[in-house]
Amino acid sequence: MPPRRPPLSLSHASRYGTCRSLCCPLALRPAASSRKCSSSAPAPPPNSTVDQPHKPDHRELGQAQKLFTHSPYSPGSPLFLPRGADLFNKLQGFLRAQYEKFGFDEVITPNIYKKSLWEKSGHWDKYAKDMYSVQGRGATGKGENAEAGEDEEFGLKPMNCPGHCLLFGSEQHSYKELPIRYADFSALHRNEISGALSGLTRVRRFHQDDGHVFCRPSQIQSEIKSSLDFISLVYKTFGLGPFKLVLSTRPEEHIGTAAEWERAEDQLKAALDASGQPWEINPGDGAFYGPKIDIILKDSDGKEHQTATIQLDFQLPQRFNLAYTAPAPELEKQGIVEGPEYEEAVQKDEKGPVTPVVIHRAILGSLERFMALLIEHYNGEYPFWLSPNPAIILTTKDNPDLVKFAHKLASRLSSIGRATGPEHPYRMGRPRLRIDVDSASASMGKKTALARQKGYNFILTVGERELRHTESVALQPWSQPGLEECGRIMDSVWLHGKSKSSKRTAADDEKRDALAEEGTPALRKGKYVMVPGKTLQFFFEKLQDSYC
Ligand SMILES: [Zn+2]
């Protein structure tokens, strides 16, 4: 479904716009090259915006909607409340579904590695100050005359790349297996200075939608193109954009030779040209081990806002001695895999090891930071599939039968698509749909006002009539964006729900035709419509599947 929300309001994008990205390659950039981020500034006093419209702030919304909190016992590491965890898990679930589409395999890797791993990757030398060190039994880092690898302190990982190199190196690979694409949602830690911490945007513990592609030199262009397609698809789903592509080239502080850098940059330029999207160069702003493509979102004010990153890396696989076997290895290294010269070499049965290229990529970047962006982008009115408060059922009275009925309905709607017999576990598939019940004895006016204040997408009401005639429920859209599209979905499921009935009769067909004639009731914010229970299930199911 095409997004109906306007592009990200850039009035608040400055909070992120020039943040140092938390994506793995960037996370370890020298502090000197990090950019200033307004989110690191203290929140303005509440009365400072008296003359201006109040801008959405994820910290305020997060508190009001009970999404996350912080504790002085772990500064900079957000604690997600159940509804915040829902939102987080749905973002993860969404990406997991796309991983299948784009050929990524999820892996699980350790949080701590010995210092010698970080020395091997080159990070301990340059960026140890940004990392937490961990000590433990037999790992004090203080042992005298200890052999290398013994009594070493550990580093808490700020990135996943070295772990993924260990995975790749744990098996023999043929060129036929490549590209191999690993994805990892591990928690990452960075020792940010305390003054920089803020909400979900500047944190010490975060998760990335981190991915590493191990590919042949000849596959670089298509892999970069695929990553750009992935980004376009995801941002379109969230209604974010437009974005521009920026190629950052060799910085002063770097590893690797000038020739390697030149070759890497040429590959990225070719991929950018092939993408058909406009791009520009940001000279000298690459990470120390490779050039990168940053994706910069543009808001309605023209301000810019960095999120995703794609980075080519010729250095890391060399440091880890990674290799795959390929015919005509000398040509393979140059990305030549066809033509008379190649055919001749293959016929001579030349085979040998070739170092793969690594592409680091993150589509959302830090999930925490992306959540902050979405919370403000949607300003509390999330699409149904993502909403921490998708629906609530209000009972008109607190009589036990009615309360029981409401909970039964909530349970039925919550387990859409997963319901099985009582003896069997739920099927995996759609994420849980949280349907709340308010059975308090307060007036309907008060209960409705409270539900609206909490920003539920839909408010359902059940009373004596629904209890007697369990076929229909009163449904009131409230914080649901895109009601026009929702109406179209309701239209389609209304008839579909009817035709699904196994007990359908000629009279049902007539009724269906009549319904088709008069159309389904229009969905309007704050207005109740009566919806058959089965249709409501199909409607919610379809909203989830359509990312509405
Ligand atoms: Zn990486």
UniProtKB/TrEMBL annotation:
CDD domains: ThrRS_core. Its EC number is 6.1.1.3. The keyword Aminoacyl-tRNA synthetase applies. It catalyses: tRNA(Thr) + L-threonine + ATP = L-threonyl-tRNA(Thr) + AMP + diphosphate + H(+). This is threonine--tRNA ligase. Keywords: Aminoacyl-tRNA synthetase, ATP-binding, Ligase, Nucleotide-binding, Protein biosynthesis. Belongs to the class-II aminoacyl-tRNA synthetase family. It is an enzyme of class 6 (ligase). SUPFAM superfamilies: Class II aaRS ABD-related, Class II aaRS and biotin synthetases. NCBIfam families: thrS. InterPro entries: aa-tRNA-synt_IIb, aa-tRNA-synth_II, aa-tRNA-synth_II/BPL/LPL, Anticodon-bd, Anticodon-bd_dom_sf, Thr-tRNA-ligase_IIa, ThrRS_core. Residues 35-57 are annotated as: Disordered. Residues 84-383 form the Aminoacyl-transfer RNA synthetases class-II family profile domain.
